[in-house]
């Protein structure tokens, strides 16, 4: 079964089309790099898949559920359960500790599982820093917290928008390797927007976005 299927997705702003004819299938456990020129619509596509933005046309099936017949609440609930999102700028909550940031997706599902939070912090080599506040961490450490948070609730899909864009080459390689290992171990599919050739080659498959759709790269 595919984790995510999109068919015929199209999106524009006003009279300006961004993309159309997007067909995409992601299988469990695969990491797919999404490449494309600046302004080609990679972030917009990710946001449409995440439900942060709405496509103008097309269909999305997530974890076997067609999103179209669902009302807003049901879509949000499905996404809260099945989706993890990693942003370039980390988006951690500054007033929460590292452990509480990681626990957030579980809390939003009404769950509490300190053991799982500790396990994820160990998985990203941050077991010692659980009580720290985000301002006390380096960029690479913040991004590792964001990976732990994206996977803590065992989502089937992880969307990552340039997760290594803010990091130097060594930390970027470390973060990518962790993302790879964590998503493979979890059997989650991961769509990774990146400008980096190194990141793209760490992926199982590469796709390029242009105005008329997605192409193998
Ligand atoms: N809210 C908005 N209103 C109008 N136009 C927008 C909006 N958001 C994005 N755009 C436009 O849509 C196009 C795609 O933007 P998007 O950020 O998705 O591209 P991208 O491929 O992620 O770019 P980059 O690689 O530079 O991050 C751009 O031309 C951008 O100017």
From TrEMBL:
Keyword ATP-binding: yes
GO molecular function list: ATP binding
CDD domains according to UniProt: ABC_MJ0796_LolCDE_FtsE (cd03255)
Domain ABC transporter: 4-217
Keywords from the UniProt entry: ATP-binding, Cell membrane, Membrane, Nucleotide-binding, Transport
SMART domains: AAA
PROSITE patterns registered for this protein in UniProt: ABC_TRANSPORTER_1, ABC_TRANSPORTER_2
One Pfam family in the UniProt entry: ABC_tran
SUPFAM superfamilies: P-loop containing nucleoside triphosphate hydrolases (SSF52540)
PANTHER family membership: IMPORT ATP-BINDING PROTEIN, TRANSPORTER, PUTATIVE-RELATED
Protein name: ABC transporter ATP-binding protein
């Amino acid at each position: 079964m595919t984790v995510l299927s999109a068919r015929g997705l199209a999106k524009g702003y006003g009279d300006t089309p961004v993309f159309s004819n997007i067909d995409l299938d992601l299988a469990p456990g695969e990491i797919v790099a999404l490449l494309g020129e600046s302004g080609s619509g990679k972030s917009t596509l990710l946001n449409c898949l995440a439900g942060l933005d709405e496509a103008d046309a097309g269909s999305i099936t997530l974890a076997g559920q067609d999103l179209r017949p669902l009302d807003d609440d049901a879509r949000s609930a499905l996404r809260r359960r099945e989706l993890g999102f990693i942003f370039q700028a980390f988006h951690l909550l500054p007033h929460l500790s590292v452990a509480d940031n990681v626990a957030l997706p579980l809390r939003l599902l009404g769950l509490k599982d300190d053991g799982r939070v500790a396990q994820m912090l160990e998985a990203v080599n941050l077991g010692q820093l659980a009580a720290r506040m985000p301002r006390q961490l380096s960029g690479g450490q913040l991004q590792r917290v964001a990976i732990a948070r994206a996977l803590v609730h065992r989502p089937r899909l992880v969307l990552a928008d340039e997760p290594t864009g803010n990091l130097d080459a060594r930390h970027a390689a470390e973060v990518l390797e962790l993302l790879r290992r964590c998503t493979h171990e979890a059997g989650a599919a991961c769509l990774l927007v990146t400008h980096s050739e190194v990141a793209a080659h760490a992926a199982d498959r590469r796709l390029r976005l242009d105005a008329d759709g997605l192409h193998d790269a």
